[in-house]
Amino acid sequence: MLFIGLLILKWLFIIILAIVILTSLFLKFAPTFGGKPSADTIDRITNSPNFNGKTFVNLPSSKPFALQTVSNITPYTEGTQTHTTQSGNFLWQFLFPPKGKNPSHPIDTLPLNLKQKISNNVEHHPYDNTLKDGEFVWLGHSTVLFRISGKLLMTDPVFHSASPVPFFVKPFKMTNPPKAEDLPFVDAVLISHDHYDHLDHKAVKKLTHKVGHFYVPLGVKSHLIRWGVLETNISEYDWYECTTIAGNPSFENDGDINITFAPTKHFSGRRLTGQNTSLWGSWAVQSKQLSVYFSGDGGYSEEFAKIGERFGGFDVAFIEDGAYNQNWRNVHMMPEESAQAGIDVKAKVVLPIHWGKFDLSVHHWREPVRRLKSAFDTYNSKLLPCQRIRVTTPRIGEVFTLDNLPSAPWWEQES
Predict the structure, then answer these.
(1) What is the pLDDT of residues 217-275, one digit of tens each?
(2) What residues are paired with 283 via a beta bridge?
(3) What CATH architecture is 104-413?
(4) Domain ranges of the chain
């Protein structure tokens, strides 16, 4: 018996040692963790006004948080189960998820039918597609595809896992899941930060030859280089740095596109160590015909109002609304705060993003969009029709324009 006991202990030790070694090798060498910044990038980071010598830091707040326009809404309830987001029951709800935390059946989504064809204009990229100027497609979470001034832009392309471990945090099941392989040529990709639910290394590898240029926060370029993107096809930005993308002269709505990387109140990091050594933020996209704001991730702050003033408002804002909890309210907005952010940036239309694709918190999967719409109903009820902010809620994969906004509560038909 003693011999058998010692043999069992020996094999347990060998198994534990093997797990430790394999985990260490994975953490050190797996490509999903990205690369290390070049000397030029390190020099820019060191000289950034948003870097304190060790990490990037959020802008200081001049006043305590307070919703100015939108009142707090009672958390969404379904039946007798209340899906709150209080810190006291967070761990319990994670271990024992409430009913409805995830959809019980595949979400009804539309196929991404953007066919490629050879362009007659050899001076530009060799692909065109069926998406027209001023058309948008939400692909779930924070991924939006849209055409502006003849150029196709995309935000935070994520199509696989929202985790470094491939089989963790998979997308919800969908009838027509969007795939990177189904995308046409994309002129520009805007990255908000390097978290896994916003920077998908498998998607980047698949898109390497389908993207004209990647625009990323300071410190993120090295990740893309490790995944096969040419350094010349990547540009890094600090807060309020900007550039111009030349519009496509073959399109009727000609004009350059100005893009600016703007602050948010968030954090970054893909490893257990080295947190906040790359920057995070949002993007303002402006042309003569259209202005777009992409919020990225972040807690509510007065910076949204400053952005609204600085850029004169936006035709549409993609606003984070989901994967929130009282525990991390400082870095992820609650739905009522998301509504306030849309008001602050002076958006005419708000597209809620960061919901409907991944299970990243403990709230019911429908709760983000319900609470956001309730908050805007409260706000709009006090205004004239011409002053109200419109909320658009397309299905994943649905093409829409600002003149024909989808608003049907499709999630109510989903179980």
Answers:
(1) 999 999 999 999 999 999 999 999 999 998 877 655 568 999 999 999 999 999 777 78
(2) 261, 294
(3) 4-Layer Sandwich (3.60)
(4) 104-413
